[in-house]
Amino acid sequence: MRKLKVAAFYPHPDDMEAQVAGTLLKYVEQGHEVHVVIAMDGRRGRGILPDQVSWPEIVELRKKEAIAGSKYLNVTPTFLGIEDHRLVEDRSCYEIVITEMENLNPDIIFTCAPNDYHNDHRALSRLVLNVAWTPVFFSDTKAGVDFNPDFYVNITQQMPTKLKMLGEHSSQLQEQSAEALQVLNRFRGIQCSKSEIIYAEAFKLYKRANWVKAYELLPDDDFNPPVQIVPTLEKN
Ligand SMILES: [Zn+2]
Q1: Is residue 48 situated within a structural domain?
Q2: Which 8-state DSSP code applies to residue 77?
């Protein structure tokens, strides 16, 4: 496969780790170029914070944590710096996102599902879609609610590193979040019906006429999705 430029557009610091880190690790292992874009500054994310910490201090802390998380991918994230809860489909946000998209000019894009649980996630998803000219894959919603995947990436080997990446966000770690993620990725692994697949990340392709074969850009070398666009004749 040719070397791909992969862009991950995610709203808050820690969303990339939760939603797509295993797949991005796989791209890096296979020699592709990965870029992480974090749209929001993370100031309103709840979590474990010392008393009387100011918003600029929270923003700095979350930036440091995001840089530490992305180190496992050997990349430094790009921070678009939009304030939490202030991402809307207006001209200024559109300009920020399209400018970054033009800078990167990626071959494949990952972002949140348009029905994800948080308003910033939904808003970024719509903006990314509006400015994307290459295939867009939506990652799983939080806790997998109302998400029927088209494709799965086997992240069994990458799962321990994914959890370490998530662990870098110590100011945001809620007690059950690593467990919730393991359960979700295990559930998606079970849906693959293959004993060797313990953990998987699940995706939906945004269907558009010239993107229908975009699944070929996913990083699995043994690509054999349980849910296929073309039905298989292979006997199970
Ligand atoms: Zn988020």
Answers
A1: yes
A2: P
